[in-house]
Amino acid sequence: MAGLFDSFTLKGMELKNRIMMSPMCQYQANEDGTVTDWHLVHYVSRAIGGVGLVMVEASGVEARGRISTGDVGIYSDDHIAGLARIVELCKSYGAKTAIQIAHAGTKAETPEPNVAPSAFTHFDRYNTPQELTTGEIQEIVTAFADAAVRAVKAGFDTIEIHGAHGYLINQFLSPLTNKRTDEYGGALENRLRFPLQVIRGVKAVIPDDMPLLMRVSASEYSEEGYSLDEMVEMAKQFKEAGVDMIDVSSGGSLPTAPPAIYPGYQLQFAEAIKHGAEIPTIAVGLLHNPALMEEALQNGRADVVAVGRELLRNPHFAKTAALELGAELELPNVYKYAY
Ligand SMILES: Cc1cc2nc3c(=O)[nH]c(=O)nc-3n(C[C@H](O)[C@H](O)[C@H](O)COP(=O)(O)O)c2cc1C
């Protein structure tokens, strides 16, 4: 099995190591959704620090699909140039680049009314959403595909569809949030309809050799939510529709926290999906200890490890991990004086 500092190839994308910067909203975008100097400095610093795959935060496919008005947008061609500059610089430091395309649904806090599969929410903080009509659902499918076209134009190596954390795609998948009685609700086959349409729509507009990623919430931490077995079944269908690797997170449909949070608390889900659906997975969640990351990969539980908060603390975490594991990782020449 490969380790943290072995390369990883998925279709036409080759990562120099298996550390991914997990998507993390910065709430620093301009109100029109364009990126700022903050994003350039933030993402490029992690590329300089040796991360194999830098993923840009959840970026709204519609203005009303942003979590906040400080979110990055990818709903207009005006967003492409700023993103392209981030991509260009990250690549010049040897990182590959990804962008997470997202729609927050109920969890959007923008001036526009929020929308969802069904007109209710489990959260006190969000407004009651408007129920989407089937015509509006199709418009959002198109918005995801248009966003993917822009991501390709900006030069990203891969795209991740945000299907986790109780946002719009997750809202359709989950019986906790999807109470529709039409072809988009009820049985699993129906709850899968919108997510599969999004995947197919994106797949149709990206180059054949570009891998497509999808983030899921593998557990809803509720008896009334979908089960891990159902998630494995969903992952099989995502794969059939064109997803090449699943980024395995959890929670978000309800305002409840996981029962226990400990290093690698979501790793079991990445392992179950990897083997159950026979698809590469990204593990995430308090995987900040290089020995534990190595264990996850070498024991075949996941293929890539995403790091969130540790990379906020330490942009050079990849080098720290390489030193700890005795692996080689080249940083820009002048930084050699520091090691
Ligand atoms: C500030 C912040 C912003 C986040 N934004 C996103 C996001 O845009 N998309 C997403 O899927 N997850 C988001 N997350 C979750 C992280 O990607 C990651 O899954 C989580 O922090 C667990 O990994 P960690 O323990 O390494 O931090 C965010 C987390 C933080 C701390």
TrEMBL record:
Highest taxon above the source species: Bacteria
Gene Ontology molecular-function annotations: FMN binding; NADP binding; NADPH dehydrogenase activity
NADP found in the keyword field: yes
Protein name: NADPH dehydrogenase NamA
Co-factor requirement: FMN
UniProt KW keywords: Flavoprotein, FMN, NADP, Oxidoreductase
Entry-linked InterPro entries: Aldolase_TIM, OxRdtase_FMN_N, YqjM-like
Organism encoding this protein: Tumebacillus avium
Residue ranges constituting the NADH:flavin oxidoreductase/NADH oxidase N-terminal domain according to the UniProt record: 4-323
Cytoplasm found in the keyword field: no
PANTHER family for this protein: NADPH DEHYDROGENASE C23G7.10C-RELATED
